[in-house]
Amino acid sequence: MINQVYQLVAPRQFEITYNNESITDNKVVVRPLYLSICAADQRYYTGNRNEDVLEKKLPMSLIHEAVGEVVYDFKGRYKKGTKVILVPNSPVEKDEIVGENYLASSKFRSSGYDGFMQDYVFMEYDRIVEIPEEIDLSIISYSELVTVSWHAIQRFEKKSISSRSSFGIWGDGNLGYITAILLRKLYPNALIYVFGKTDFKLSHFSFVDDIFYINHLPKDLKIDHAFECVGGKGSQSAINQIIDLISPEGSISLLGVSEYPIEVNTRLVLEKGITIIGSSRSSAKDFQEVALFYDQNPDVIEKLALLKSKEFEVKNINDAIDAFEYDLSKSWGKTIIKWDL
């Protein structure tokens, strides 16, 4: 069948291309319904990547956060209309030790491999996760970001010491907010602190034990473990502030992405015996666990709803451009695309 794919061919420029796709017995055909714009998408859209990276990866369809509905399943496992979360990571091999999201051979949608801005996507059976009909799809569309935080917490569980009475989250943006929601649920008896600098953003964290402005911290404050969700230029000061405050043998989970190398106080890292845990993306297993987590904790969906910024009904390329341009100007939350091309 002929499938229309909406590709970014140059910064701020989309074009339609046509792919001839074959319907096979090992693929499920899914129609995207709701998409969510990520900061990584914006770096491509605005051309805020090195020239050699853009030259290598474009043209490319954007978006790796999406939900859709099944339109055709050769094997009949899914009924037509079944709502599913789409998993953007596509491994081509299996390793008994290294996770699928850390294998260099794995393909990731909207990062050198066409994302979900397509009429239809052809998914492997283990790359979709069924969700209930009644759930708000516009909110679930950014579940990929939830799985990134979930994955980091699972890695923390395996690699950290058992003292878990307090957690610090650096970053008052989307990822920091999601991480705070998950930690609050998974460690109900622990103290959860959020560190940021923007009043408006910090006002959303009403469910944590305390919020702190990064330039006005109590002198006696200590935490067991930290999650760095800042990224960019601010990650250097955030990580070094964590190193100053964290208790001996605590762990620092790094989630923020920085385009450039940063300096870290390794002397104090060694002195305190700090464990630094890197996390990137997530696996299909994380998506499955997050879907179950939603089912068991419906109030989490209500908290995630606060992240929804504005919804755009996209019927043509100009509508898509409007959504991406708006997303650049917003101060909080996720821009949602109702995919109706």
Description:
This protein is of the alpha/beta class. It is 30% helix and 29% strand. It has eleven helices and 18 strands. It has helices at 39-45, 51-57, 137-140, 143-159, 174-186, 199-202, 235-245, 266-272, 284-296, 298-305, 317-329; strands spanning 2-10, 13-20, 27-36, 60-61, 65-73, 83-86, 89-90, 107-108, 121-124, 128-130, 166-170, 191-196, 210-213, 223-228, 246-254, 275-278, 308-314, 334-339. β17, α11 (317-329) and β18 (334-339) form a beta-alpha-beta unit. The longest helix has 17 residues, at 143-159.
What are the main properties of this structure?
341 residues; alpha/beta; seven-stranded mixed beta sheet; six-stranded parallel beta sheet; 11 helices; 18 strands; globular
List the helices and strands and how they pair.
Elements: E1 2-10, E2 13-20, E3 27-36, H1 39-45, H2 51-57, E4 60-61, E5 65-73, E6 83-86, E7 89-90, E8 107-108, E9 121-124, E10 128-130, H3 137-140, H4 143-159, E11 166-170, H5 174-186, E12 191-196, H6 199-202, E13 210-213, E14 223-228, H7 235-245, E15 246-254, H8 266-272, E16 275-278, H9 284-296, H10 298-305, E17 308-314, H11 317-329, E18 334-339
Helix pairs in contact: 4-5, 9-10
Short description:
The chain is α/β, with parallel strands linked by helices.
Helix content: 25-40%
- The radius of gyration over CA amounts to 20 Å
Terminal-residue CA separation: 17 Å
Average pLDDT, rounded to a whole number, is 95
